[in-house]
Amino acid sequence: MQSEVAKKFQVLGQPVHLLQDYPTWLIQRLQQGRGTHIVTLNAEMTIQAKENPHLAEAINQAELVIPDGAGVVIYLQMYKQKVQRCPGIELAEALLKQADQLQDKCPVYFYGGAPGVAQKAAQYWKQKNPNLKIVGITDGYISPDQQKELTQTLETLQPKIIFVGLGVPRQELWIAKNRHHCPNSIWIGIGGSFDIWAGIKERAPQWMQKLNLEWLYRLYQEPWRWRRMLALPHFAWKAILSLKTQNQN
Ligand code: UDP
Questions:
Q1: Are 66 and 91 a contacting pair, CB within 8 Å?
Q2: Cβ(147) to ligand 1 under 6 A?
Q3: Residues whose CB is less than 8 angstroms from the CB of residue 98 and which lie 6 or more positions away in sequence, other chains included
Q4: Whose CA is nearest to atom 1 of ligand 1?
Q5: What's the alpha-carbon Rg for the chain, to the nearest Å?
Q6: What predicted TM-score, i.e. pTM, was given to this entire model?
Q7: Ligand 1: centre distance to CA 240 (Å)
Q8: What own/partner pairs with CB < 8 Å and gap ≥ 24 does 174-183 have?
Q9: Which of 195, 196, 201, 228 for a ligand 1 pocket mutation test, highest count of atoms within 8 Å of Cβ?
Q10: Ligand 1 contact, 136 CB (< 6 A)
């Protein structure tokens, strides 16, 4: 089967790949053993990347940048791009379902979250998908020595999919630095997804997701994020300015 060709578009200087079917595209890469770094782009990350050249470089080198956040989708729609939001957690779930089907052929690794959280998330997935082969779990608060051990373990095990939940930009920088240990694997930064699978946090209800209000629900669950969320009006302002400039040219 021919792979769909990703169309690349810029959102305030960061790339986004536009595809109709992200899971199918990725599953083909998985089967072909083509190493892939997946970045789940949202407005906050776009603004962070403007101030952090290392993050910008990691995003630019990733083989797949998906429109994870509503702000990014609205931006693309302003530029008349046909786009559908692809939340990172849903893409990660599609990958886990595929790994369950492939059983031993698709070992996966969980890295990140507070101690015990990724274990809980693994239990949740093993209950749902008993054939899923989770070959290792490491929490996201380890020493430099344990870091070394982790990369050695990854090198030995060569998991096909590595889920990294360290938050932005830590996870993107860590993947960019370490992906050479498993050059044929899929690496995905999943933010707080382990917390959700472990039942510690919840995703916004469907109706809020539909109204693009997931950010508001997060603020309600994690009010200490308010400072980080100032990136959202900043993003909106920059988006309006960029459209204005484009219309003047
Ligand atoms: N985390 C971690 N190690 C760290 C800092 C954070 O494993 O040194 C985890 C944290 O426990 C949480 C996730 O990273 O599970 C960050 O989640 P958040 O929803 O804040 O991600 P973001 O919005 O940055 O994608």
A1: yes
A2: no
A3: 23, 27, 30, 106
A4: 166
A5: 18
A6: 0.96
A7: 30
A8: 175/37, 175/58, 176/37, 176/57, 176/58, 176/61, 178/151, 178/154, 179/35, 179/37, 181/151, 181/154, 181/155, 182/35, 182/154, 182/155, 182/158, 183/35
A9: 195
A10: no
Q: List, run by run, the mean pLDDT of 10-residue segments along the chain (249 residues).
A: 83 96 95 97 97 98 97 94 94 97 96 98 97 98 98 98 98 98 98 98 94 92 91 93 82
pLDDT at residue 243, rounded to an integer: 85
- CA atoms within 13 A of residue 223's CA, in its CB half-sphere: 1
Q: Is 115 in the pocket of ligand 1 (CB under 6 A)?
A: no
Q: Is the CB of 191 under 6 A from ligand 1?
A: yes
